[in-house]
Design a protein that fits this description.
This is Inosine-5'-monophosphate dehydrogenase. The chain is α/β, with parallel strands linked by helices and 280 residues long. The chain has eleven helices and 14 strands. The chain has a four-stranded mixed sheet. Strands 7-8-9 form a three-stranded mixed sheet.
Length: 280
């Protein structure tokens, strides 16, 4: 299958110069996790900017400083398996599609590869061979700021919620965290005392340094208030193709994996499943 048959053509982009607020507003409005960045009034791709870029750099305002420059791109005429290889090798989930003039014509994601290509295969391999087993979990009564820090430590885009019986009861994604947060500015005061040089009897002079820093501030809600409770799950023995179809139907990029005894054993993401597309 060619990229042009799997990509999204109605792609939303931002341009440089621009600022954080423009990106965040557009992401919220369009429900996008990543936006291609084009140069000025042109369609020439110069970068990509993600939700993670905004979250991890709260002090930076300019798109040019937040975005990833010279991004990996694809051509409409490329085979989807080649794009899957690019995603796997570069640990990315979304690739802008450009024409011969480097102008933006679409975007293709790991979910697109799963929904448009992998569902049309017949791969009997079990998803236990593709899932990740180190998955962040948290109590459903955990404050959002604590849950967010836990998710960040794992370098993932989601965290699973457990109830009082340690059973899976929800899933919370990076998108959910952004919806319940805002960037605030805090000013801290730092003082130091320095004696006057050459005079041991002189009064010490005090210098004051004011540091202004931005950070994410979350609402007072707990994980259970925000997490999606109707969680789609798969069995560790579920076939790759069947799991791909489940993702497409539910329009989700990740599914918790339950073992044969009903316990949580892992998480399979679209970016994990596309490895089966390359190996086919």
């Amino acid at each position: 299958m060619l990229v042009k048959r799997a990509m999204s053509k109605n792609v939303v982009s931002v341009s440089v110069p621009g600022n954080r607020e423009e990106v965040l507003d557009l992401m919220r409005k369009e429900d996008k996790a990543v936006l291609p960045v084009v140069k000025g009034e042109t369609k020439i791709v110069v970068g990509v900017i993600t939700r993670s870029d905004l979250i991890n750099n709260p002090d930076e305002e300019q798109i040019a400083m937040l975005m990833t420059k010279n991004p990996i791109t694809a051509l409409p005429s490329e085979d989807v398996r080649d794009v899957a290889k690019k995603m796997i090798e570069n640990d990315i989930r979304r690739v802008p599609v450009v024409d011969d003039e480097e102008e933006l014509v679409g975007i293709i994601t790991s979910f697109d590869l799963v929904a448009q290509a992998l569902t049309k295969t017949d791969i009997d391999d079990a998803i236990e061979n593709y899932m990740i087993t180190t998955v962040p979990t948290t109590w459903d009564q955990t404050p959002l700021n604590v849950a967010f820090e836990t998710m960040k430590q794992f370098g993932l885009k989601s965290i699973l919620a457990l109830d009082d019986n340690a059973k899976l009861c929800g899933i919370l994604t990076e998108t959910d965290f952004i919806a319940e947060s805002e960037i605030i500015s805090e000013r801290s005061e730092h003082s130091s005392t320095v004696g006057t040089e050459g005079d041991k009897w002189s009064w010490d002079s005090t210098s004051v340094l004011y540091i202004e820093k931005n950070r994410l501030k979350f609402t007072k809600k707990v994980v259970g208030d925000v997490a999606v409770s109707n969680v789609e799950v798969a069995n560790s023995k579920t076939k790759v193709t069947d799991c791909a179809k489940k993702m497409k139907t539910a329009h989700i990029e990740q599914i918790p994996v339950i073992g044969v005894e009903g316990d949580l054993v892992g998480l399979v993401r679209a970016s994990d499943l596309i490895k089966a597309l390359v190996e086919e």
